[in-house]
Write a structure and sequence with these properties.
3 helices; eight-stranded mixed sheet; alpha/beta; 2 domains; binds GDP-perosamine
């Protein structure tokens, strides 16, 4: 099994740890967190230090890293960490919980998290560093850009397109073939029945634009 280092050791990291230890692809070498003390443990795994340890881990021969900080609507930290890791040329694998169903006819970018019982159906395409969280559904032919977060239980019907950095709140559903722009937040439990532009906050049933996302 190959070693992997997780960046971030908070709530989202626990879901990532669960997915990694349930699978057979990676052994977690350690966790890197800006605020926890070296030696602290999360789910029995040790924090090895802050982001200055990334280069030390590379020197020790670690090739694979995974961004395990989450986001609720503000993916800036995930974006910064992703760019930083990309510059270092390390491997950024997808972490997929073994209970997820990922079609062989789907195409995933790099560094995506696919949580327990999530479904990605045939013809779907994702960018990089998306969170496809527990029990969310990406139906056939959907397209997700980079840094999209589908929160737990969110459902995208067939052919939906989601712009970069957009957050789809827990339990929301989006009707067939709709488009949601970049940098938008769809509030939890929303029912999206028409296209939603980029750069806004929208929620409700039916989902309506409420204000700009600044
Ligand atoms: O620059 C950083 C940095 N900034 C904060 N580098 C590193 N390596 N770590 C950083 N952190 C750490 O991320 C914090 O010290 C903290 O331990 C962790 C964030 O944990 P938190 O539990 O606050 O949030 P999260 O991002 O893991 O999870 C959020 O998003 C998930 C998708 C939560 O709101 C979850 O409920 C949600 N499921």
């Amino acid at each position: 099994m190959e070693d992997i280092v997780l960046i971030g050791a908070g709530g989202h990291a626990k879901s990532v740890i669960e997915a990694v230890v349930s699978g057979n692809n990676f052994r977690i070498y350690g966790l890197i967190d800006a605020n926890l003390k070296p030696g602290e443990k999360v789910c029995g795994l040790e924090v090895i230090g802050d982001d200055s340890c990334i280069d030390k881990a590379i020197t020790r021969g670690i090739k694979s890293f995974f961004i395990a900080v989450g986001s609720i609507g503000k993916p800036d930290l995930r974006v910064r960490l992703f760019e930083m890791l990309k510059q270092r040329g390390v491997e950024l694998p997808n972490i997929i919980h073994p209970s997820a169903v990922v079609s062989r006819f789907s195409v995933l970018g790099k560094g995506n998290f696919v949580g327990a019982k999530a479904v990605i159906n045939a013809g779907a395409v994702t960018g990089n560093n998306c969170i496809i969280n527990t029990s969310s559904v990406i139906e056939h032919d959907c397209e997700l850009s980079d840094f999209v977060h589908l929160a737990c239980g969110a459902v995208l019907s067939g052919g939906v397109r989601i712009g970069a950095r957009t957050h789809i709140g827990a339990g929301s559903c989006v009707s067939n073939s709709l488009e949601i722009g970049s940098n938008t937040i769809i509030g939890s439990g929303s029912v999206v029945t028409e296209n939603i532009p980029g750069g806004c906050i929208a929620f409700g049933n039916p989902c309506k634009l409420v204000r700009k996302n600044e």
